[in-house]
C-alpha cells in the first residue's frame, strides 16, 4: 500500500522496471528511453521528497515496511533474546523487551511493536501498550541497573491504549512509574523515536540521557488526528494540526526535545530499511561512546539536567 | 491525553441560566442551593454531598494553616513558543485566561504549614485553560519540589486538570518527565509528597507527578484517569460502565489510598504529614 504522494514515483519506478525487463527479454536497446525516465524520476523524487510537509512525514512515520522495533533488534543488535511478561498480570505483545548485544557489549532493550499485517497488528494492539507492557519495560530497566548494562528504548506508538482494560489496571500510574524508573537509571539510557512518538505512552520509555529520532518520525503530546478532533471538531484537519504541533524531527531539535536526528534514505526508511538501520546503528554507537565516560552519579545528574531544562517561559 | 475538556464550558458553579446568581442547582441531586450556603459548606452540596469545583485560592485557604501561606508562584510567565493557533491564537487565549483568573498560568502555590508541618502547597486552577500543564506549570511545580527539598518541607499538590497543554505540544509532554524527576529531590531528603486528586485529574497530569504521591488521596466523585471518557468511548464504541473513572472506582481498583470528603481533607492531610514528616514527630521529636 503506497502513500498518496509517493504514487507518481512508484508508477515511474515500475515503468522503468518494465522497460528494463522488456529490453532484456527482447534484446533491444531502450537505453535512451530509460535514461530519460530515470532523469524524470530523479527530479520528481527531488521535488516530492525535499519538500515534505509535516503531515507527509507523519504518513512516512506510519508507512508499511518501515523498520519496527523487532526489525531493529534483529538487524543491528546481536543475540537479541526476548524476555516476556510483567510478573504481575500478563505479557503485553505491544511492547517487546529483552537483552542483546550492541557493538560488543550487553544491553537491555524495550520498545513498542506494531504489526506488519492486519492480523499481526491486532495481536500487537497497533503498538498501543497496556499497563503490563510498561511494567515489562521497567523490568528491563531493573536488569540494566543490576548488570550495569546500557538501556536502549525504541519508541513507535500512536499512544498508550485508551480503553477500559487499561484504565482499570492503572494506565496513568504505570506510565508515571515508568518515567520515574527510567529517570533513575544509573546506566547510560538512550531513547530512539523510530516512527510514532504518541504522547505519554511514548515518553514512558523516553527518558534517555540522549533522545534520538529518525528523520521522518514524529513525537508530540497528542496525535494530529486527535488534536484536530479537539480543536476543530474535525479529524480531517490533521494536516493543520501537524503544522501547529510542530512535531517533526527538525522541529523537535529546534525545541531541544531531541538531541540527534538519524538520516533516512530519500523518501523514507521504508524505501530502504537496511540503509536506515545502518545509519541508526552508527548513531547509537556514537551516542553510547559519548555516554561511556560518565559514572552512575553523573549519568543521573546529566539526565536530570536534560529534562529540568525543558520548556519555554518568561521568568521576567 | 487530550485536553478534551479544555474548551468546554465549566459544568458547575456560576449557576444555570434559569436560576438567578444567588442560587445554584446541584448537578447531582438538582436541589436549589443558596450560593452563600454552598460556599459556607466548602462548595459541597448540603443535600447530597456533591463536590463542586473549588477555586485555587479557596483550596489554599482550606488546607494551609491560617496566615501561614506565602505565595511563590506567579513569577514565571507563559510564552507562545510554538506560535500555536487554532480557532484563536494561543497568545490571545493566554491573555484571556490571565484576565479571568488573575493568575499568570494554571497553578497557584507557595510555602505554608499544614497542621504545623512545613510544606510547599501547589493547587492547579481548572479555570485557567482547564488546569492544563504547560511549561509554566511544570516549572512552578519543579521549583516547588526543589524548594521543599532544600528547606525540609513536605510537598503537597492538588490536581484539577485536563492533562498536558496541547498548545505547547512536545514542550508540555516534557513537563511530565520534568515534574516526575523533580520529585526525586524529595525522595533523597526523605520528605513526604501527598498528591490530592480533585475533579478532574486526567491525561499527562495523572500520568506524571499526580500519580506518584507517597500517599494519593482523592475527593469523592472526581473524574480520574489517563484517557478521557470521550476518547475511550470512541475507541471501544461502547457505553462506559456507571461510575467508571470516578474516585470510588479507582479506590476499588487499588490506585488510590483514600477517598476523602472535603470537610475531612485538611485533618486527614495534616495527620498524614505529621506521620511522615521528620518534624511531625516521626522520629519521636
Topology overview:
The complex is a heterodimer of chains A (316) and B (285).
Chain A: H1 7-26, H2 31-50, H3 54-61, H4 69-75, E1 78-82, E2 95-102, E3 105-112, H5 118-123, H6 131-146, E4 151-157, H7 164-168, H8 171-183, E5 189-198, H9 199-203, E6 210-214, E7 218-220, H10 224-231, H11 238-245, H12 249-255, E8 260-262, H13 273-291, H14 296-308, E9 313-314
Chain B: E1 23-25, E2 32-34, H1 35-40, H2 56-63, E3 70-71, E4 77-78, H3 90-101, E5 107-114, E6 117-124, H4 135-151, E7 154-161, H5 169-188, E8 193-201, H6 203-206, E9 215-218, H7 229-236, H8 247-252, E10 258-259, H9 262-276
Parallel strand pairs in B: 6-7, 7-8, 8-9, 9-10
Antiparallel strand pairs in B: 1-2, 3-5, 5-6
Helix pairs in contact in B: 4-5
The topology string of helices and strands of chain A comes to: HHHHEEEHHEHHEHEEHHHEHHE
Spans of chain B with pLDDT under 50 lasting ≥5 residues?
A: 1-16
One letter per element, helices H and strands E, the order of chain B comes to EEHHEEHEEHEHEHEHHEH
State the helicity of chain A in percent bands: 40-55%
- The tally of structural domains of chain A comes to 2
| Main sheet overview of chain A | 8 strands, mixed
CATH homologous superfamily annotation of the largest domain in chain A: 2-enoyl-CoA Hydratase, Chain A, domain 1
The amount of helix of chain B comes to 25-40%
Rg of Cα set of chain B: 18 Å
The CATH topology of chain B turns out to be: 2-enoyl-CoA Hydratase, Chain A, domain 1
> Could you say which overall geometry of chain A the principal axes of the C-alpha atoms support?
globular
Q: Record the strand order, biggest sheet of chain B.
A: 3-5-6-7-8-9-10
Amino acid at each position: 500500500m503506497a502513500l498518496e504522494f509517493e504514487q507518481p514515483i512508484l508508477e515511474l519506478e515500475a515503468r522503468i522496471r518494465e522497460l528494463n525487463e522488456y529490453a532484456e527479454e527482447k534484446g533491444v536497446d531502450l537505453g535512451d528511453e530509460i535514461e530519460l525516465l530515470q532523469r524524470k524520476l530523479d527530479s520528481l523524487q527531488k521535488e516530492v521528497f525535499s519538500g515534505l510537509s509535516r503531515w507527509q512525514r507523519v504518513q512516512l512515520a506510519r508507512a508499511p515496511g518501515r523498520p519496527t522495533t523487532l526489525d531493529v533488534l534483529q538487524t543491528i543488535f546481536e543475540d537479541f533474546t526476548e524476555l516476556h511478561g510483567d510478573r504481575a498480570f500478563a505479557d503485553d505483545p505491544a511492547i517487546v523487551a529483552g537483552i542483546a548485544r550492541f557493538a560488543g557489549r550487553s544491553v537491555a532493550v524495550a520498545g513498542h511493536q506494531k504489526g506488519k499485517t492486519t492480523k499481526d497488528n491486532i495481536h500487537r494492539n497497533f503498538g498501543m501498550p497496556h499497563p503490563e507492557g510498561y511494567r515489562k519495560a521497567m523490568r528491563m530497566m531493573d536488569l540494566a541497573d543490576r548488570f550495569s548494562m546500557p538501556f536502549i528504548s525504541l519508541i513507535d506508538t500512536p499512544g498508550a491504549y485508551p480503553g477500559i482494560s487499561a484504565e482499570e489496571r492503572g494506565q496513568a500510574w504505570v506510565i508515571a512509574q515508568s518515567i520515574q524508573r527510567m529517570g533513575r537509571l544509573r546506566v547510560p539510557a538512550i531513547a530512539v523515536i523510530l516512527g510514532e512518538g504518541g504522547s505519554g505512552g511514548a515518553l514512558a520509555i523516553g527518558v534517555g540521557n540522549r533522545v534520538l529520532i529518525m528523520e521522518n518520525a514524529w513525537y508530540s503530546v497528542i496525535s494530529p488526528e486527535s488534536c484536530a478532533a479537539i480543536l476543530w471538531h474535525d479529524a480531517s484537519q490533521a494536516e493543520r494540526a501537524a503544522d501547529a504541533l510542530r512535531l517533526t524531527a527538525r522541529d523537535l531539535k529546534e525545541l531541544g526535545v531531541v538531541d540527534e536526528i538519524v538520516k533516512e534514505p530519500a523518501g523514507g526508511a521504508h524505501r530502504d530499511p537496511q540503509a536506515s538501520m545502518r545509519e541508526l546503528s552508527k548513531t547509537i554507537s556514537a551516542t553510547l561512546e559519548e555516554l561511556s565516560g560518565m559514572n552512575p552519579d553523573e549519568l543521573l545528574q546529566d539526565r536530570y539536567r536534560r529534562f529540568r531544562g525543558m520548556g519555554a517561559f518568561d521568568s521576567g | 491525553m487530550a485536553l478534551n475538556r479544555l474548551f468546554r464550558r465549566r459544568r458547575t458553579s456560576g449557576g444555570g441560566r434559569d436560576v438567578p446568581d444567588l442560587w445554584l442547582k446541584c448537578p447531582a441531586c438538582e436541589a436549589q442551593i443558596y450560593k452563600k450556603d454552598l460556599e459556607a459548606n466548602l462548595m459541597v452540596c448540603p443535600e447530597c454531598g456533591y463536590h463542586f469545583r473549588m477555586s485555587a485560592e479557596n483550596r489554599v485557604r482550606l488546607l494551609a494553616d491560617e496566615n501561614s501561606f506565602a505565595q511563590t508562584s506567579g513569577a514565571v510567565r507563559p510564552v507562545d513558543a510554538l506560535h500555536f493557533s487554532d480557532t484563536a491564537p494561543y497568545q490571545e487565549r493566554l491573555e484571556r485566561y490571565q484576565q479571568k483568573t488573575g493568575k499568570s498560568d494554571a497553578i497557584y502555590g507557595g510555602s505554608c504549614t499544614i497542621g504545623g508541618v512545613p510544606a510547599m502547597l501547589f493547587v492547579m486552577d481548572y479555570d485557567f485553560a482547564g488546569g492544563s500543564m504547560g511549561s509554566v506549570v511544570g516549572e512552578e511545580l519543579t521549583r516547588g519540589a526543589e524548594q521543599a527539598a532544600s528547606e525540609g518541607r513536605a510537598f503537597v499538590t492538588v490536581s484539577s486538570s485536563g492533562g498536558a497543554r496541547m498548545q505547547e505540544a512536545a514542550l508540555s509532554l516534557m513537563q511530565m518527565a520534568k515534574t516526575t524527576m523533580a520529585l526525586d529531590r524529595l525522595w533523597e531528603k526523605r520528605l513526604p509528597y501527598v498528591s490530592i486528586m480533585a475533579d478532574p485529574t486526567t491525561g499527562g497530569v495523572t500520568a506524571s507527578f499526580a500519580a506518584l504521591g507517597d500517599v494519593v488521596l482523592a475527593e469523592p466523585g472526581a473524574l480520574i484517569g489517563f484517557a478521557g471518557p470521550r476518547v475511550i468511548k470512541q475507541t471501544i464504541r461502547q457505553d462506559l460502565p456507571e461510575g467508571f473513572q470516578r474516585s470510588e472506582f479507582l479506590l476499588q481498583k487499588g490506585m488510590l489510598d483514600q477517598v476523602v470528603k472535603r470537610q475531612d481533607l485538611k485533618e486527614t492531610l495534616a495527620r498524614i504529614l505529621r506521620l511522615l514528616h521528620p518534624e511531625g514527630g516521626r522520629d519521636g521529636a
